[in-house]
Design a protein that fits this description.
This protein folds into two domains: 43 residues, no CATH class; 213 residues, Vaccinia Virus protein VP39 (Rossmann fold), CATH 3.40.50. Helices cover 27% and strands 22% of the residues. The protein has a seven-stranded mixed β-sheet with strand order 3-2-1-4-5-10-9, with helices on both faces. This is Class I SAM-dependent methyltransferase. GO terms for molecular function: methyltransferase activity. Keywords: Methyltransferase, Transferase.
Length: 274
């Protein structure tokens, strides 16, 4: 079997479970909770009505996604691409708003959690795909009404390439991301894992500052939900908005501007080409 495709024994090793045959069985009453407990690392919660316990973050009721939907308008029947669905909380919101969703997740454990969530939440208009969403954007012929990129841009080795691909595949995008801004000077302890001096990239006629950053070995945690390599870049906030304008997005709105976020300044951006 190809090293890029995981087998069941490999999954068991990833989950930290023994691989003896009889340890693969669950002899309890079948419940959704059993499926949740079979996969470690849950970060997000389920709506209380489902009566299950997973993580604690209520992504199924995220004000950032409500705002994105309000900016875009009616999603009924629209085609949405979700980058990095994590555990399908935002997917649930998008489907409830009427969208058909392609959700692309590269993290094997997160992908399996999405499939469990899909079953528990009864999602019917969302499909989950395991793999690199950059390659999806590079190779698909499909165009989307909206791309949702929440919590993924700042995990990219080449965030500007991702922005270019998004612009090629959709006329509207929602981004929630960490950024570097004046609210985060070099002396800020949140900068301790980040390069002091940024790279400067010429991008469609504008200069964009990008700051290399490390995960500092947090990727060993089963709940890790970052990028695929420990070499990612955060963009300067003003430069990010300038880059979106350079790509032709002329309707740009911002919200949830949080310079005091524990991990670094964060912001929601909705951008559309008119």
């Amino acid at each position: 079997m190809s090293g890029r495709v995981f087998g069941f024994d490999r999954l068991l090793k990833i989950f930290g479970r023994k691989t003896q045959t009889f340890d693969r069985y669950v002899d309890a009453l079948p419940t959704h909770q059993n499926a949740i407990d079979a996969i470690p690392g849950w970060s997000t919660a389920f709506p209380e009505a489902f009566g299950v316990t997973a993580g604690i973050v209520p992504t199924y009721y995220d004000q950032r996604i409500f705002w994105a939907i309000d900016c875009f308008g009616a999603l009924e029947g629209r085609e949405v691409l979700e980058l990095g669905p994590l555990e399908a909380g935002h997917t649930y919101m998008l489907e409830n708003a009427g969208a058909h969703v392609d959700a692309v997740e590269a993290n094997q454990l997160a992908f399996m959690r999405c499939l469990v969530a899909k079953e528990i939440l009864g999602l019917r208009k969302a499909r989950f795909w395991l793999g690199d969403f950059v390659k999806w954007l590079e190779q698909t012929d499909k165009s989307y009404d909206l791309i949702v990129a929440s919590g993924v841009l700042y995990h990219q080795h080449d965030p500007l390439r991702l922005l270019e691909l998004i612009a090629q595949r959709a006329s509207a995008v929602f981004i929630w991301t960490h950024v570097v801004s004046e609210a985060m000077p070099v002396s800020d302890p949140r900068r301790s894992v980040m390069a002091d001096v940024p790279e400067e990239h010429s991008f469609h006629g504008v200069t964009v500052r990008a700051y290399p950053r490390s995960y500092v070995k947090t990727q060993s945690n089963p709940a890790f939900c970052g990028g695929m390599r420990d070499d990612h870049r955060w963009l300067d906030k003003d430069d990010l908005i300038a880059a979106l304008r350079a790509l032709g997005f002329d309707d740009i709105r911002t919200n949830h501007d949080d310079p005091d976020h524990v991990y670094g300044p964060a912001i929601s951006i909705f951008a559309r080409r008119s």
